[in-house]
Amino acid sequence: MTGEGLRSNDRTLRGNRNASRFRVLVCHSSPCRAAGAEAVYESLVETVKALSLDIEVEVDTTGCTARCTDGPLVTVCIPGKKDVIYANVTPECVMEILKEQVPGLAAPE
Questions:
Q1: Do 32 and 67 form a contact (C-beta atoms < 8 A)?
Q2: How big is the CA angle at 47 (ends 25 and 45), to the nearest 5 degrees?
Q3: Beta-sheet pairing, 74-77 with 84-86
């Protein structure tokens, strides 16, 4: 791929990322993965999809957030607001996190 092709891909990816209002980042460092981060990530992806929040909420993984003993860690990034970090997250916590962060969200019936 040419340099211009790479720059074009970068602009496209940045544009897609900016379309999301929220980013939810699951720490995927070794300690967080050992504590269950993969299950938390999968639960977030499935819940966001089930609630049709794919456009509003981007779920991704991140590296170490320097609180390894508190993992799995989930960071919610909302433009214009201070990031919120949740510690010791389990798949069962996912809906509560989304309800706290996404205005007007009701649990699915």
A1: no
A2: 45
A3: antiparallel
CA distances from 47 to 5, 42, 79 (A): 34, 8, 21
Q: Is 10 domain-assigned? A: no
Domain for residue 87, yes or no?
Answer: yes
1's CB contacts (< 8 A; 6+ apart) are 9
**Which pTM was predicted?**
0.77
CATH number, domain at 42?
3.40.30.10
| pLDDT tens-place string over residues 19-64 | 558 899 999 999 999 999 999 999 999 999 999 998 889 999 999 9
pLDDT in tens, 44-55: 999 999 999 988
Residue 64 lies in a domain: yes
